[in-house]
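So, can you check?
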Amino acid sequence: MNFQSYFPIWSKLTVPQQTRILTGLTERSVQKGALLHNGSADCTGLLLIRSGQLRAYILSDEGREITVYRLFDRDLCLFSASCMLRSVQFDITIEAEKDTELWIIPTELYQQLMEESAPVANYTNEIMAARFSEVMWLMEQILWKSLDKRVAAFLLEESAIEGGSLLKLTHETIANHLGTHREVITRMLRYFQGEGMVRLARGSVELLDRKSLELLRDA
């Protein structure tokens, strides 16, 4: 499928605007683990995902990661064009969690479209609002939820994304998503295993008792 079918407000652009965006687009394929954007000094452009999965995260001063949000097919990433978002005061890193195909919209071109087109401006504001809601949800989890509940929620979310109970995840990966230490995650997962909720193996976690994990998450 082409860009036109992935960009939700394509039909609301004028023909000259459509021509400019198609002329300025670049396509890119990246492998799992590739960094697409690394902090506010990097202004990659806006990323529209054709297929795959990206992860946006921030780094603490100690070098610990915490996932802010994830992006899937048809999602548009604004924070990869950080030079366009002057009010954003924190650095976000974006990496590919899976092999990903995407389009890159140049920042300057998108800024021009925002200035010319009310639908583009409104669409961008909607995305910003959604991302802000995700950040607020993350802060709520960190401030008010105990780690066991956050780990249970993460495992259930990951299972929904992957469509199965066997998750190819290391303890380090889970720690990076949740902004904690690997040793803490290892202890928590071993507790889960002792309670019969998961089975651990090298590089994987298998969900055995989804109901108990859901009860823990929602407690």
User: Anything to note?
Assistant: The longest strand covers residues 65-71.
